[in-house]
Specification:
The structure holds 2 protein chains of 2 kinds. By secondary structure, chain A is an alpha/beta fold. Chain A has helices at about 20, 30-40, 65-75, 90-100, 115-125, 145-150, 155-165, 175-180, 280-290, 310-315, and strands at about 1-5, 50-55, 80-85, 110, 130, 185-190, 205-210, 215-220, 250-255, 265-270, 270-275, 295-300. In chain A, the strands form 2 sheets. Chain A has an 8-stranded parallel beta sheet with strand order 5-4-3-2-1-12-7-6. In chain A, strands 8-11-10-9 form a 4-stranded antiparallel beta sheet, with no helix packed on it. The radius of gyration of chain A is 20 Å and the shape is globular. In chain B, strand 4, helix 5 (about 110-120) and strand 5 (about 125-130) form a beta-alpha-beta unit. Chain B starts with a strand and ends in an 8-residue tail after the last helix. In chain B, helix 4 crosses helix 5 and helix 12 (about 285-300) runs antiparallel to helix 13. Helices cover about 45% and strands about 15% of the residues of chain B. Chain B is an alpha/beta fold. The chains are: A alpha/beta, B alpha/beta. Strand 9 (about 250-255) of chain A pairs antiparallel with strand 8 of chain B.
């Protein structure tokens, strides 16, 4: 099994890639313990690949030179390179076309938009397409999915429901054959709060799983981007932003839960909500890995919403909007 | 440009046809699905209780009568995915809907189901659901591999983006867009949450949760915190609008919620094929009022009434200027 490390730029590669070091990268005091917990659970690993980019926002795409620089630095360390790409508008497709031109044969591109797969097939057959986790369809609502697994199924319908919830769009062999027809033999996914049935991995597809954060929902409307707009102009889909998402994190506590999980937390960074893996979720994932059904684990020590370095540095000072 | 109305019962047909509906869509959730998966796993994007028909006889009666009124009927099979165990049931459902029942199109989002149905050579056409998140022309070109006759664009596309897509692919496939009644705070195709009644929609649930901010810069002043809190309050207000102004109606009983009436002249000019009114589960009155509002504006656009006059009329029809002026009730800014 391979280990991949999600990096935010070349500076991450200036030092040893030990779990002890990388699990301190997340600046948030709320999130760093999650990365630390995962690192402790993993023990010692050797990374053979790096992932770079974000799956959730086209405003966080790097510059062409920035991407080329990171890819070169990764290769110089003898590591494989995966470029994570988001769902995109037509403008994003045009931007991605310029970015993909800077990649080299054998590099991977994780696509989270069927349009990006089409772009890869039409113009970049030398790059390896990987189905990203946004296109691995499953319910992963941490408010309730964990509850389904807490007690034994009361009847056949409950058992069938729970079994279905542990599966995803990759469950059908015919779906995997369809992906193969389009040159896709690798699929990425999240570690589900309700547990995963990875039986589909027996059909020859290679499965990669992210830890220690999973995505809940994402949007073209970004709450953080609203900070610099007049009230009536806020929350427009795809609206330009100043990477306000980099300045803060929002933690939600599920205080209105109808179940016993009122201490559960969700995290909003920019336009995307995430959940953190618990210790039992990590154990379940490592059991799957031990059984040989996971080809790759992708360690993301930070929430995967980091702006490219140059853009983050250009972030303007706080401007208070009068409404 | 057609007006596509939701329907969930034969009894609503005459009223919708008389009000101006030109196409209809609905859903069916057979008893065996509910017996097998309870209400936790939805066969389509609406709760089995209230948004769909339950029996084949009801469906047949509805489709026959709609065809008698020259209205095509489209049926949703648009769950984001189906497992290996579920797929045979869904395929059989599709065959029966197309064959015995004679529906005109199946609305699908799972590309595996799309591929399988395209191989079946069914009489019913394929429409790509908004859940497939066709956000760009390249995605639609990819989905054309499965032979759809129509693509329903997600709500989150702007008028300019819709125009670009329509120019790129509108000659090869019909384009349908959202027009009235229901929004989605997230990108529907990339939302992995449930609307199950035990927890409700994630977006509205968030508005009731305790929140803590963590500022990633050296100084987190009271002023900055207040700034973030005001933005959060604005966002929660926007989510309220997205959810049909708290699922309410105007004092005159007209539907609240996201609206694209002012964009109809632009959509007509671009060659958009169909305007979707959301809300299979809504009351018959809400459906009727929605269709009438859209028809009023569509007729003016078809007649070539100047855009600004159409917009004035749309605002007058809604008769709630403070909500129109909020900026949060529009699908599309024009």
């Amino acid at each position: 099994m391979e280990w991949s490390l999600h990096i935010a730029g070349t500076s991450d590669l200036e030092g040893d890639l030990t779990l002890d070091r990388v699990s301190a990268w997340e600046p948030s005091a709320k999130l760093q313990p999650v990365a630390r917990l995962a690192a402790q659970a993993v023990g010692k690993v050797e990374f053979s690949r790096c992932a770079y980019g974000t799956e959730f926002c086209e405003h966080l795409l790097p510059s062409s030179d920035g991407l080329a620089e990171v890819a070169r630095a990764v290769r110089e360390r003898g590591l494989g390179f995966t470029f994570l790409t988001p769902y995109v508008s037509n403008a994003g497709i045009a931007q991605l076309r310029r970015l993909l031109e800077r990649m080299e044969p054998g590099d991977e591109v994780a696509f989270n938009d069927w349009g990006v797969l089409n772009l890869l097939r039409r113009g970049f057959p030398h790059l390896t397409p990987v189905q990203g986790r946004l296109l691995n369809k499953s319910l992963r609502d941490p408010r309730v999915m964990g509850v389904y697994g807490e007690s034994p199924a009361a009847d056949a319908a409950a058992a069938a429901t729970f079994a279905a919830l542990q599966r995803s769009s990759a469950d059908c062999a015919g779906y995997l054959d369809l992906l193969a027809r389009f040159g896709v033999r690798d699929v990425e996914m999240d570690n589900l709060p309700q547990g995963m049935d990875l039986g589909f991995a027996d059909h020859g597809v290679r499965v990669a799983v992210y830890l220690p954060f999973g995505f809940i929902s994402t949007s073209r409307v970004c709450m953080a981007a609203g900070l610099h707009y007049r009230k009536a102009d806020k929350f427009q889909p795809g609206a330009p932003c100043r990477h306000e998402c980099q300045s803060h994190l929002v933690e939600y506590a599920y205080t209105n839960s109808p179940f016993s999980n009122r201490d559960q937390k969700f995290y909003l960074k920019g336009n995307t909500y995430f959940y953190a893996h618990t210790e039992p979720m990590l154990c379940g994932l490592f059991d799957h890995a031990g059984a040989g059904r996971v080809a790759r684990l992708v360690f993301q020590p930070r929430l995967p919403m980091t702006a490219p370095a140059a853009a983050a540095a250009a972030e303007p000072e706080l401007v208070l909007v009068t409404v | 440009m057609k007006i596509l109305a939701p329907i969930r019962a034969f009894d609503e047909l005459e009223m919708l046809a008389a009000s101006g509906a030109e196409e209809l869509y609905s859903g069916i959730v057979p008893r065996e699905w509910m017996d097998r998966y309870t209400g936790a796993i939805w066969l389509n994007r609406r709760s089995p209780n209230g948004g769909s028909l339950e029996t084949w006889s009801e469906m047949k009666q509805l489709v026959d009568a709609a065809h008698g009124a020259k209205l095509p009927v489209f049926i949703t099979l648009n769950a984001p995915y189906y497992t290996a165990e579920q797929l045979p049931l869904v395929l059989e459902l599709a065959r029966r809907l197309s064959g015995d029942i004679g529906v005109d199109a199946l609305i699908v989002s799972d590309i595996h189901l799309m591929a399988r149905l395209s191989e079946e050579n069914l009489a019913a056409k394929l429409h790509v659901s908004s859940v497939a998140a066709s956000l760009n022309s390249e995605a639609i070109r990819f989905l054309m591999n499965f032979g759809p006759s129509r693509v329903i664009l997600p709500r989150s596309l702007t008028v300019a983006e819709i125009e670009e897509i329509t120019q790129d692919v509108g000659r090869d496939v019909e384009i349908e867009v959202f027009m009235l009644n229901d929004g989605c705070a997230f990108e529907e195709g990339f939302c992995a949450t449930t609307h199950h009644h035990s927890v409700g929609a994630f977006c509205t649930s968030l508005s009731e949760m305790d929140v803590d901010f963590e500022w990633n810069r050296p100084v987190f002043t009271r002023r900055r915190r207040d700034w973030l809190m005001r933005n959060l309050a604005d966002y929660r207000r926007w989510v309220w609008y997205v959810n049909g102004n708290g699922c309410g109606s105007t004092p005159k009983g007209l539907p609240y919620g996201p609206c694209g009436l002012c964009a109809i002249p632009d959509l007509e000019r671009m060659g958009v094929a169909s305007l979707k009114i959301v809300g299979r589960e809504a009351s018959p009155f809400k459906k009727m009022a929605s269709v009438r509002m859209v028809r009023d504006i569509v007729e003016r656009a078809r007649a070539g009434v100047p855009k600004l006059h159409v917009i004035e009329r749309a605002r007058a029809l809604r008769d709630e200027p403070e909500h129109c002026d909020s900026g949060y009730m529009c699908y599309y800014k024009v």
